């Protein structure tokens, strides 16, 4: 555990947990988050489920301060993310984020995509950054494609590169924002498999997903959001298998049985 610049006494813990208390966020006149309370303990996997527009992605972006909350408090490890004097650069070095779209640099090779941030932000040497990147590309099964450009890869391969890129920063927390939503159904499994391996290795993860099978198998807890509120939360087998709230029951019925049969 080491001290970093930022708020006095701020420390980095490994792995990082997340505590959200009274989180509110509006866009114009639309209140998207209406007082969210949630905890992700170190080493836990928490899946956020709910209909589009329920506030899941906004919540995730607030954790990384890609969106500024209107009210409430968020801590990531020992960083108070919502403090006016927080060192966001130092905090974000502990967080890996994977988006719906892969956000790879099209003009760079796979290897260059995975080394650019460690070299520029962490000031790693070229050799050290490449060694770390190749290690993580091997973990996601793509070391043999290190010299290719993103356009030469499938969607699933690009998303696996995005995961490897996030891991090169050696994060304590991984945020996933519907990482399989833009993928062909045949490639979804390869990305979920990597995420499952990360979970089994003890990575703290907060995942927005519509993949109920993944949530049931991998998540320690599932949180159902609706209209900016936490409606139900608990162990995955309980929330997905035997939800108690009518709104959760209706949502899962539609998701798990879309034809209504």
UniProtKB/TrEMBL annotation:
<keyword id="KW-0029">Amino-acid transport</keyword>
<keyword id="KW-1003">Cell membrane</keyword>
<dbReference type="InterPro" id="IPR003439">
    <property type="entry name" value="ABC_transporter-like_ATP-bd"/>
</dbReference>
<comment type="similarity">
    <text>Belongs to the ABC transporter superfamily.</text>
</comment>
<dbReference type="GO" id="GO:0016887">
    <property type="term" value="F:ATP hydrolysis activity"/>
</dbReference>
<feature type="domain" description="ABC transporter">
    <location>
        <begin position="18"/>
        <end position="252"/>
    </location>
</feature>
<dbReference type="InterPro" id="IPR050086">
    <property type="entry name" value="MetN_ABC_transporter-like"/>
</dbReference>
<keyword id="KW-0472">Membrane</keyword>
<dbReference type="InterPro" id="IPR030679">
    <property type="entry name" value="ABC_ATPase_HisP-typ"/>
</dbReference>
<dbReference type="InterPro" id="IPR027417">
    <property type="entry name" value="P-loop_NTPase"/>
</dbReference>
<dbReference type="GO" id="GO:0005886">
    <property type="term" value="C:plasma membrane"/>
</dbReference>
<keyword id="KW-0067">ATP-binding</keyword>
<protein>
    <recommendedName>
        <fullName>ABC-type polar-amino-acid transporter</fullName>
        <ecNumber>7.4.2.1</ecNumber>
    </recommendedName>
</protein>
<dbReference type="Pfam" id="PF00005">
    <property type="entry name" value="ABC_tran"/>
</dbReference>
<keyword id="KW-0547">Nucleotide-binding</keyword>
<dbReference type="GO" id="GO:0015426">
    <property type="term" value="F:ATPase-coupled polar amino acid-transporter activity"/>
</dbReference>
<dbReference type="InterPro" id="IPR003593">
    <property type="entry name" value="AAA+_ATPase"/>
</dbReference>
<keyword id="KW-0813">Transport</keyword>
<dbReference type="GO" id="GO:0005524">
    <property type="term" value="F:ATP binding"/>
</dbReference>
<dbReference type="InterPro" id="IPR017871">
    <property type="entry name" value="ABC_transporter-like_CS"/>
</dbReference>
């Amino acid at each position: 555990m080491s001290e970093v610049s930022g708020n006095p006494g701020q420390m980095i813990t490994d792995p990082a947990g997340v505590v959200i208390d009274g989180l509110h966020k509006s866009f114009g006149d639309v209140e998207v988050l209406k007082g969210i309370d949630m905890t992700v303990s170190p080493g836990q996997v928490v899946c956020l489920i709910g209909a589009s527009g329920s506030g899941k992605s906004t919540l995730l972006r607030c954790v990384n301060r890609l969106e500024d909350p209107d009210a409430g408090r968020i801590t990531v490890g020992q960083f108070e993310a919502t403090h006016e004097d927080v060192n966001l650069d130092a905090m974000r070095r502990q967080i890996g984020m994977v988006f719906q779209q892969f956000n790879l640099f099209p003009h760079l090779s796979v290897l260059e995509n995975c080394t650019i941030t460690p070299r520029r932000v962490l000031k790693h040497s070229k050799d050290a950054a490449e060694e770390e990147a190749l290690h993580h590309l091997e973990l996601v099964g793509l070391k043999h494609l290190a010299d290719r450009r993103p356009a030469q890869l499938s969607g699933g391969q690009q998303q696996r590169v995005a995961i490897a890129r996030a891991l090169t920063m050696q994060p304590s927390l991984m945020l996933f924002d519907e990482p399989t939503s833009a993928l062909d159904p045949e490639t979804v499994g390869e990305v979920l498999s990597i995420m499952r391996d990360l979970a089994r290795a003890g990575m703290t993860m907060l995942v927005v997903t519509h993949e109920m099978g993944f949530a049931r198998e991998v998540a320690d807890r599932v949180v159902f959001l609706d209209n900016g509120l936490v409606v139900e939360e608990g162990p995955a087998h309980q929330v997905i298998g035997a939800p108690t709230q009518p709104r959760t029951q209706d949502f899962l019925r539609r998701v798990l049985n879309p034809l209504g049969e």
